[in-house]
Structure to design on (392 residues):
DNA sequence: CTTATTTTTGAACCATCATTCATTTATGGT
DNA sequence: ACCATAAATGAATGATGGTTCAAAAATAAG
């Protein structure tokens, strides 16, 4: 018998994030990822069905994490909807700050994944969006947020804006101060959703 | 001698926009585009150097158009910066509304093009962003817009948000009323940038 | 140490298109 | 009509890179 050494699946995923970020999914080569992960090309196929499913796994793990953390925030009763909303933004920011390459991959390849309905990942993603919507609804109910806000539109606009900013930042961290970015986004959005 | 009949270059570009939107750039096949354009596969290479340059041409033409229209708006002296800003938003909205497939292509493939610096298209794109920035600067100077606004951040956030919304809309026009979308975006942004 | 079993390897395979080019077709001038 | 030239064709070519798999290596059990 022989047992698996180390955590090759994680090594491959980490390498894939790095390479996908640098080359883009379609330009990235499996052999390149394998090299970065210090495994043989064929080994990738011991852990993943094919190239697509490597990307899908990256998305799944991220959105699951975001979803779970958002769930905790949503349930809190000690803070108001605005604070929940800010916490959520902070959480997402922090996550991508901790892993810029991941930010690039998510920002760049989401379209491809959503297009092909390859997205079992879509479960957590949709759930996360729903939680965000819940927070906004609560705020509207409590008259903290603007009554005319269309939730679908707001959430999509915000999401797209954030994604693009993170992508810019991840590609040239020096051009943007993330702190300033966070401040500005919060400011723009708050002034846009507050009723007074 | 023989002269070119019709406008095959335009036929190919239109077909490409349609196919790129439906399949995504990397999945789209030249033969498929040729078929859609009613030309032979090889004919595509009479008008374009390669697959990439078809995509680049699509971007070039769009951003040139947007840039030129923005330039007209910028120069006007009869309206204030806020109105200029709104006009600019309207213009971009109108353009994509008139051609949803184009919206999808732009939204989906921009990352790919920007990554590879394949972007001679970037000239008009950058110029457009600069014009937008000019409008904002003017508004800040005239104390119509918030003094603490970071232009880079604001423009990137707005751009990303709009792009994502248009992409959603282009993929399922029935889920979103564009009119409502336009209203909401203007509202969110205005409340975010107005100083009072 | 030997054997059985599982993991790992990486070179070879092969499907997929982008691209080419020899051939055909159309046009305009004479 | 005929020729010269340019435009158009689409089957053949060739490169690329995802995927496979026979062989090798590592480990545990006896």
């Amino acid at each position: 018998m022989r047992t698996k050494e180390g955590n090759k699946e994680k090594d491959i995923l980490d390498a894939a994030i790095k390479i996908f970020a640098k080359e883009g999914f379609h330009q990235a080569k499996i052999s390149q990822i394998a090299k970065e992960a210090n495994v043989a090309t064929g080994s990738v196929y011991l852990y993943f069905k094919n190239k697509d499913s490597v990307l899908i796994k990256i998305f799944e793990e991220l959105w699951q994490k975001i979803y779970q953390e958002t769930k905790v925030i949503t349930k809190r009763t000690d803070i108001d909807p605005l604070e929940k909303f800010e916490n959520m933004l902070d959480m997402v920011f922090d996550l991508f700050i901790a892993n810029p390459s991941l930010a690039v991959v998510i920002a760049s390849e989401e379209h491809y994944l959503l297009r092909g309905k390859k997205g079992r990942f879509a479960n957590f993603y949709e759930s996360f969006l729903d939680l965000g919507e819940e927070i906004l609804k609560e705020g509207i109910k409590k008259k903290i947020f603007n009554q005319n806000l269309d939730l679908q539109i707001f959430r999509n606009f915000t999401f797209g804006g954030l994604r693009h900013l993170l992508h810019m930042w991840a590609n040239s961290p020096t051009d943007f101060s993330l702190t300033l970015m966070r401040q500005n986004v919060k400011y723009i959005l708050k002034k846009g959703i507050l009723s007074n």
